[in-house]
Amino acid sequence: xxxxxxxxxxxxxxxxxxxxxxxxxxxxxxxxxxxxxxxxxxxxxxxxxxxxxxxxxxxxxxxxxxxxxxxxxxxxxxxxxxxxxxxxxxxxxxxxxxxxxxxxxxxxxxxxxxxxxxxxxxxxx
Length: 125
Known about the structure:
Blueprint: E1 14-16, H1 32-47, E2 53-58, H2 65-85, E3 93-97, H3 110-116, E4 118-123
Parallel strand pairs: 2-3
Antiparallel strand pairs: 1-4, 2-4
């Protein structure tokens, strides 16, 4: 339901897509809840045809920083591909990956690492 909070969809608005989860260490969607959230995002994009978004992937800080950056990009791109398959213009969606460089929480705890493994959505225009 988080996506519904972006009404109105103003430039600069952002949110963490908390219900979109990936299988650990991969860019594969983890569960049905993730697909439901992605479908809500598709609907949001169709209802706001004039906006473009940026999807930023993030990981925790465990493991190789280069691989984490690559994984974070792959995860954001996986969402973009899903949206495009559902009819959203590929050009409306930018992606970037930050690996573990922008944590929201302490990486020393399991809970913190879970919070840091995320994709954030930003409305660009």
